[in-house]
Design goal:
The complex is a heterodimer of chains A (347) and B (123). The radius of gyration of chain A is 45 Å and the shape is rod-shaped. Chain A contains 7 helices and 7 strands, in the order H-H-H-E-H-E-E-H-E-E-H-H-E-E. With 123 residues, chain B is α/β, with parallel strands linked by helices. Chain B has a single domain, classed as Rossmann fold (3-Layer(aba) Sandwich), CATH 3.40.50.2300. Chain B contains 6 helices and 5 strands. Chain B has a 5-stranded parallel sheet with strand order 2-1-3-4-5, sandwiched between helices. The radius of gyration of chain B is 13 Å and the shape is globular. The N and C termini of chain B lie close together (9 Å). The chains are: A alpha+beta (347), B alpha/beta (123).
């Protein structure tokens, strides 16, 4: 019993002159009070225990949370690392796709360089002959003849210069193609770029497949002035669309040898602020199911090892990055048209 | 002697005219030029047997040199003219195809004009 209560009751008990009935009532009240105190003490004790348990639980929870947050941090780091790796891999893939496209062109490039070099060699040989002829004519004082020969020499010199430049341009564009894109827009002649890649792609195909034949139609808009865009990237798109067209006609040609006149047409159109480029072939065409997927990365209809499946996906990204659009229309078995439109003045 | 040269490189004309300028001046030889297989067939249908020799490149857009050769030898003309094929790819496959289709000779680029002149003398 509570000591204070006990001494209170004892003192009350010892008091004299108190009505015994009232005394008994107070003592009874004191006992009830004692019970209440006991209950309160019990409750207090229980609360204390709950408090302790809660504190322990709380501590455990905090620790658990800390562990979890550390794990999340760890995972985050790993994810960042994976992302970095993924980006690297993507860059490597883009590069290898580029090199694959270049590899496809190698023979065409060799051919396209050999031709102007032959002219350079031939015309300079002729000029050597003409110069010795000229010396003889000077001795003989044949002035009219001298004039003619000098004029020929000058003309041939122009040819040498022209074809030397031509070879140089091809080497330059090849180097540019294999280099990492700077992403910087520059001013260039789109028609000329298309003309160059059309011929390179053609000779590339010819070198690989001797029976390859195509009627090449170029309808390049003469009023199109030089445009400003990322030349190397636009070159990749053009090359990709042309080689795809060549593959499509080669494929159709396999099954359709007679009465088939394979044809690829490239068209440019000045549309004011924009330029439209169209590549049309009368090759094998595509079904709607294939069309739905062709811009997806790694999707290819070519046999394993023959296509990276990245060409059109990269082309799509390039055109998007230029703020343009790229579309395809195709009839299964009859041919395909790719159209892209880009602003003429890229920032 | 008239020679038809078929090549999609237009400067081939100036080159031949310069390389053969003495022969041309002395009327020993004259040239006609076609810059595609299609143009060559057109020339042949207009001029018949005027050209006694056809010198054709193989790699041309449109009708290739081999296809031109096939049409000349098999369908176009009787008796067929002499056809020499020229190619930058001096490979066996092109050579075999050209010979099978009835080519009279096969030359590789870069053309050695002194050899060509020797060959022309024999025709």
């Amino acid at each position: 019993m509570n000591l204070n209560l006990k001494s209170l009751l004892n003192q009350l008990n010892d008091l004299e002159g108190v009505d015994p009935k009232a005394k008994a009532e107070i003592l009874d009240l004191g006992k009830k009070l004692q019970k209440d105190v006991e209950i309160l003490e019990f409750k207090l004790d229980r609360t204390e225990k709950v408090k302790q348990t809660t504190a322990i639980l709380l501590e455990e929870t905090i620790e658990e949370l800390q562990q979890k947050s550390r794990a999340v941090e760890e995972t985050n780091k790993k994810l960042l690392h994976s992302l970095e790796e993924l980006k690297n891999t993507q860059n490597q893939l883009i590069q290898s796709e580029k090199m694959a496209a270049l590899g496809e062109l190698t023979a065409g490039i060799a051919h396209e360089i050999q031709n102007p070099l032959n002219f350079v060699n031939n015309f300079s040989e002729i000029n050597q002959e003409l110069v010795s002829e000229l010396l003889e004519l000077l001795d003989q004082q044949e002035w009219e003849e001298v004039k003619i020969v000098v004029k020929d020499i000058a003309e041939n010199e122009d040819k040498i210069k022209h074809h030397g430049k031509r070879a140089e341009n091809i080497v330059k564009s090849m180097l540019q193609h294999s280099r990492k894109s700077t992403g910087v827009a520059e001013v260039f002649d789109l028609n000329q770029l298309i003309d160059e890649y059309f011929r390179l792609a053609y000779h590339g195909m010819r070198a690989k497949d001797k029976s390859f034949q195509v009627k090449m139609l170029m309808h390049l808009d003469g009023s199109l002035t030089p445009i400003k865009a990322v030349k190397q990237d636009i070159g990749r798109v053009v090359l990709n669309l042309i080689t795809n067209a060549f593959h499509a006609i080669a494929e159709r040609g396999q099954f359709n040898k007679d009465h088939y006149e394979p044809q690829v047409e490239v068209r440019t159109k000045d549309q004011g602020d924009q330029v439209k480029v169209e590549v049309t072939d009368n090759g094998s065409g595509m079904s709607d199911q294939i069309i739905d997927k062709i811009f997806q990365p790694f999707y290819t209809t070519k046999p394993a090892g023959q296509g990276t499946g990245l060409g059109l996906s990269i082309s799509h990204d390039i055109i998007k990055a230029h703020g343009g659009t790229i579309e395809v229309k195709s009839q299964d078995g009859l041919g395909t048209t790719f159209t892209f439109i880009i602003p003429k003045n890229q920032k | 002697m008239k020679v038809l040269v078929v090549d999609d490189e237009r400067d081939v004309q100036v080159l031949f005219e310069q390389r053969f300028r003495k022969e041309i001046r002395n009327d020993k030889i004259s040239f006609a030029f076609a810059f595609s297989g299609e143009e060559a067939l057109e020339y042949l249908s207009e001029h018949g047997h005027e050209a006694v020799l056809i010198l054709s490149d193989i790699n041309m857009p449109g009708i290739s040199g081999l296809e031109l050769l096939r049409r000349i030898k098999q369908q176009f003309m009787a008796p067929p003219p002499v056809v020499m094929m020229i190619t930058a790819y001096g490979d066996d496959e092109n050579y075999q195809s050209a010979m099978r289709l009835g080519a009279d000779d096969f030359l590789t680029k870069p053309l050695d004009f002194s050899i060509l002149k020797e060959k022309l003398k024999e025709i």
